[in-house]
Amino acid sequence: MKTNNKTYHMSILALFIAIVIVQNFVPLFGYIPVGPLSITTIHITVIVAALVLGWKDGAFVGGVWGLITFIRAFVSPTSPIAPIVFTNPIVSIVPRILIGIVTAVVFYFIYKWWKNKTLAMVIASVLGSLVNTVLVLGLIYLLYHGQAANFYKVDMGQLLPYIMGLVVTNGVPEMILAGVVAPLIAAPLQKLVRKN
């Protein structure tokens, strides 16, 4: 019975990894263009994995996304700035791993205190999304502010306001999307995984 449980768990984990891979390579599935920007949806898969399987597997699924981002920055960049910033694993991999960890830990503690699973999932999903946005853009600013200013065609004094604008235009819709969609997917999956 223990082997069957482990096999079942591994198959669910493999499914999440497969979804992340598909989202990275199928146009309009993982990155939805909205005007000159794009809304990321891959973080939702990482958040759902963390809510359903826990922090270790959530971190692993996030790490897979980060590794794909890192490799694509060298061979098939998703944007003109990707070869500059995402070739650094601190920017491309670490924030994605932390999505899974933060989501699962926040969910655990909020659910433990308030016993409201839906509220815990919503807050954990929003914070998981926020971790990705703040860390990626924050690390770009800290590590590449000179290059980023040139790339975004803004002067150095305007780079921080510009990045804060990206947090609002990209980060807020991504957080709202995560807060709504991730709990809707994770709640029935949690029941199914625990049942089996």
UniProtKB/TrEMBL annotation:
InterPro entries attached to this UniProt entry: ECF_trnsprt_substrate-spec
Transmembrane stretches, by residue range? 12-31, 37-55, 67-87, 93-111, 118-142, 162-186
Q: Under the GO molecular function aspect, what terms does this record hold?
A: transmembrane transporter activity
UniProt entry keywords in alphabetical sequence: Membrane, Transmembrane, Transmembrane helix
Which protein is depicted? ECF transporter S component
Lineage of the organism? Bacteria, Bacillati, Bacillota, Bacilli, Lactobacillales
